[in-house]
Write a structure and sequence with these properties.
The protein is of the alpha+beta class. The chain is built from 15 helices and 19 strands. Strand 2, helix 5 and strand 3 form a beta-alpha-beta unit. Bound molecules: pyridoxal-5'-phosphate (PLP). Pyridoxal-5'-phosphate binds next to helix 4.
Length: 470
């Protein structure tokens, strides 16, 4: 039985020096002159040839690779995704919700969740997350807020959660899943940042183990998969596998990328062969890195539950964005930063694999010397409404009958936003089209403008204008 069925079959094809009279048009890289790494890479970019199976009707090597994935995660059935957790989130929503129905949604979900809700004109009941004290960012849900939302909306039969957050913080999702199941509610979990939770202690426990009905994970975020490589796990008989397959076929390309699928096969195998010793080694290396960092004056480390996430702060309070820019000039590229925090995603290392932690420590030391005099000039801004449940002011089905108009954001209080405005990363919208604009939201928008934060949506935000529905 092959260990990496898809990778091995593609390799066999490449070694045959086959002559391509098929798509893609780069003809196994042939049309590119000379020998370059890119040209070599393109040899893997094949298509549904004899023996290479078909993602949308898998019965050969892709079926074998997906069966190994299912087996590893212990789900009912797991599927490769070539469009990221984005396509997984859209699929789980479309496959479980009917149009125009109420659905309970953690408010700090990724934008793909909101896009899915829009596609089916859902009536979302947003549940406000707790704010994490250390980091000052949106975290998980409390059982109390979930109970209240369910009590007020007994018609809602699906709940969408995000676990963990971008920074690796978790919450007591088990109790929430159990409570929801007790009320006959299906629980869908965006676990984009938790593909490695399968390793168990000392990593947090996956929502799969707690019985979530569907779990979506970005293998490319913490496992060695290529960007866009993700997977969706169907974990209960409350979900129709037929519908999941149907939407995966609708939403994903009919020519899915072989390099991405091969990298999923590779990432699964990497995880499967990751031993207790490898875990020990990774954790020891992370500790060693942290010990070196702790010796740097002016640097503060913030631990979250996920050992692969490392958050650093500058003690004087320098804005995280500014520190990130300086770090990058020293060759260290973090995942993201906000007003306060810089987030590093650390590698899963097999025993004795070296990683340039010393070099990174030196670069961080040199960078901090340049910013430690900077003070925190950030205003304190409330992150979320005090209300634990909110909803859209104008529903998805009514929105299109409204016109749009740009007005000054400082005059937008109580108007309804015509734009979804999302800082990226982390990709959690501050305002969703159809939501009422409150003082808190205006504050957050001003803060984004002041801090020059990378935004998706908000066409004229830099001119302090927002589109509203009229
Ligand atoms: C919580 C969360 N869900 C979903 C996504 C989308 O994942 P992908 O990039 O794999 O499409 C992201 C991306 O950052 C995310 O942070």
């Amino acid at each position: 039985m092959p260990k990496k069925p898809l990778i091995e079959e593609v390799n066999k094809h490449i070694y045959k020096n086959s002559i391509s009279f098929h798509v893609p048009g780069h003809k196994n890289g042939h049309v590119y002159e000379g020998t370059t790494e890119f040209k070599n890479f393109l040899k893997n970019d094949l298509t549904e040839l004899t023996n290479l199976d078909d993602l949308h009707h898998s019965e050969g090597v892709i079926a074998e690779a997906e069966a190994k994935l299912t087996n590893l995660y212990g789900s009912i059935q797991s599927f490769f995704l070539v469009g990221g957790s984005t396509v997984g989130n859209l699929t789980m929503i479309l496959a479980t919700l009917n149009r125009n129905r109420k659905v309970l949604v953690q408010r700090n979900c990724h934008k793909s969740v909101f896009n899915g809700l829009k596609l089916i004109n859902a009536k979302p009941i947003f549940i406000a997350p707790e704010i994490s004290e250390h980091l000052g960012v949106a975290g998980g849900l409390s059982l109390e807020s979930v109970k209240a939302a369910i009590h007020q909306n007994p018609e809602a039969k699906v709940m969408i959660l995000t676990y963990p957050n971008y920074y690796g913080e978790i919450y007591d999702i088990r109790k929430i899943i159990d409570f929801a199941h007790g009320k006959g509610i299906i629980v869908l979990v965006d676990e984009a940042h938790g593909a490695h939770f399968q390793l168990g202690n000392p990593f947090p426990t996956s929502a799969l183990k707690y019985g979530a009905d569907i779990v979506v994970q970005s293998a490319h975020k913490t496992l060695p998969a290529m960007t866009m490589g993700s997977w969706i796990h169907v974990n209960s008989s409350r979900v129709s596998i037929k519908k999941i397959k149907e939407y995966l076929e609708i939403l994903q390309s009919s020519s899915p990328s072989y390099p991405i699928m091969m990298s999923l096969d590779g990432a699964r195998s990497y995880l499967e062969e990751f031993t207790a010793n490898d875990i020990k080694y990774t954790i020891t290396e992370i500790k060693r890195f942290k010990t070196m960092l702790l010796k740097i004056e002016g640097l503060k480390l913030v631990e979250t539950e996920d050992p692969l996430k490392l958050v650093i702060q500058v003690k004087g309070g320098c804005n995280g964005k500014i520190f990130q820019e300086v770090l990058e000039t020293h060759g260290v590229f973090p995942e993201m930063s906000d007003q306060k925090n810089i987030l590093f995603i650390l590698p899963l290392l097999k025993s004795s694999m070296a990683y340039p932690f010393e070099e990174a420590t030196n670069a961080i030391k040199q960078s901090i010397e340049k910013v430690s005099h900077l003070k925190n000039e950030n205003r304190k801004v409330q992150l979320h409404e005090n209300k634990s449940c909110t909803t859209l002011e104008i529903s998805y089905s009514e929105m299109d009958s409204y016109k749009e108009e740009y007005i000054s954001i400082n005059k937008a209080m109580n108007k309804v936003s015509a734009e979804t405005i999302t800082p990226y990363p982390p990709g959690i919208p501050i305002i969703i089209r159809g939501e009422k604009i409150t003082n808190t939201l205006i504050d957050l928008l001003n803060l984004c403008i002041e801090n020059n934060i990378k935004i998706q949506g908000g066409k004229y935000l830099s001119n302090k204008q927002i589109a509203v529905l009229v």
